[in-house]
Write a structure and sequence with these properties.
Layout: E1 13-18, E2 24-30, H1 40-51, E3 66-71, E4 73-74, E5 77-78, E6 83-88, H2 109-116, H3 122-128, H4 133-149, E7 153-161, E8 164-165, H5 169-182, E9 188-195, H6 211-220, E10 225-230, H7 241-244, E11 248-250, E12 258-260, E13 268-269, E14 272-273, E15 278-284, E16 295-298, E17 303-306, H8 317-340, H9 345-352
Antiparallel strand pairs: 1-2, 2-6, 3-6, 4-5, 7-8, 7-9, 9-15, 10-15, 11-12, 13-14, 16-17
Length: 372
């Protein structure tokens, strides 16, 4: 199960299936409310965004991500039943592509070979490939449409590529060009942002309820992501508490009239959203498929050899940010459904209006025993 919890415990659950060079990718999404209008064009738009980015490889030129929604809709409206979709693969040569002789450091090749005790490196790489993230991107596009009903928006920003700030476009593009010429690859860093998120999403009763742990796990599941921080989490070990924690203040227009003077917490405290923007940053390593290869071992001969090369990108920081958006949207939609109940969109709207954005804490009971 790709979601943090099962449908009975959480709002949404989802799975994907399919191989990089198989016939298609399949995605299944459960827990959507009845009555949500789904735009297939919006899904296709997100899929196209995933192919954007300087440093993409040859597959960008022919892969079409042909979308079919197979179940869960009537006249474009959700039925509340499982929604299944299919993305066709442009390259379907899984049975004829050659095997890799020397595993690639940084990929699933060798760990899977050691796990399965086979030299067939094609078998694990087909599912471990980042091609699977197209299915997650499509599901995230649906989640974005649900979040938009409640004024919640999700976006991303690339911060750097190859250690060069993304604002210095000429420099990082030149670095990507050099890496391509050298048969090398580059990593980078991106930021995710969600605005309009109400407080109280997530939980703390159990470890798996915590919104921060769910999000770090999901963003960390993107192939090549090696570090995830929430808010100013990368600096948390360097600053004293008096500088790191976000002072609470009176603020007109904020939830219950309470705001913050900063957002080092990244919108999450104690496992719950706190009403501020949710901010995450992720570091993505250079992809492990290099034309020049990295030192490895020919498994059949047990002799030193360069890692086998597969068609690949040079840099995937930009598309990885799009995938990050999708996963952030999926998790926020999930905890929102859990908070509001996801029987129907009409019911969710009514419960959202009762969350207390315009209320004042001074009117709330002092003791929990006073709650109805």
């Amino acid at each position: 199960m790709n979601s943090a919890l099962s449908p009975g415990q959480d709002g949404l659950s989802w799975r994907t299936a399919g191989e990089s060079h198989g016939s298609c990718l399949i995605a299944l999404l459960e827990g959507l409310p009845v009555g949500l209008a789904i735009s297939e064009d919006a899904i296709r738009s997100e899929l196209l965004r995933r192919w954007d980015g300087y440093g993409r490889g040859l597959r960008k030129g022919f892969e079409k991500d042909e979308l079919q929604i197979l179940t869960g809709l009537k006249k474009g409206i959700t039925l509340g039943s499982p929604l299944a979709l299919q993305l066709g693969n442009g390259d379907q040569r899984i049975d004829s592509l050659p095997n890799l002789k020397a595993p690639r450091p940084g990929h699933a090749d060798l760990p899977a070979a050691l796990r399965w005790k086979t030299r067939d490196l094609r078998a694990p790489l087909e599912r471990a490939s980042a091609r699977e993230t197209a299915a997650r991107t499509a599901l995230g596009a649906i989640a974005k449409q649900l979040l938009a009903v409640f004024g919640i928006e999700v976006g991303s920003q690339v911060l750097s590529i190859g250690g060069i700030p993304f604002t210095e476009e000429a420099k990082w593009k030149a670095a990507v060009d050099r890496a391509r010429e050298d048969g090398d690859s580059l990593g980078g860093q991106f930021r995710l942002l969600a605005t309009g998120v109400p407080p109280g999403l997530g939980g703390f009763a159990q470890a798996a309820d915590r919104l921060d742990s769910r999000l770090m796990g999901l963003i960390g599941s993107i192939p090549a992501v090696k570090a995830v921080a929430i808010g100013s989490g990368s600096l948390a070990g360097e600053l004293p508490g008096s500088q790191f924690h976000d002072p609470i203040c009176l603020e007109s227009g904020s939830w219950a009239g309470l705001g913050r003077e900063s957002n080092h917490a990244g919108g999450i405290e104690g496992g719950l959203s706190n009403g501020q923007d949710i901010v995450l940053e992720a570091v993505i390593k250079p992809i492990p498929t290099l034309r020049q290869g990295v030192a490895s071992v020919h498994l059949a001969e047990m002799a030193a050899e360069r890692a086998t090369y597969e068609r690949s990108d040079v840099s995937v920081v930009e598309p990885a940010a799009v995938v990050g958006e999708a996963l952030l949207a999926l998790q926020l939609a999930s905890v929102l459904c859990a908070r509001l109940g996801a029987v129907s969109l009409t019911e969710m709207r009514a419960r959202f209006a009762q969350l207390g954005q315009e209320e004042s804490p001074k009117d709330w009971p002092e003791d929990i025993a006073g709650l109805d």
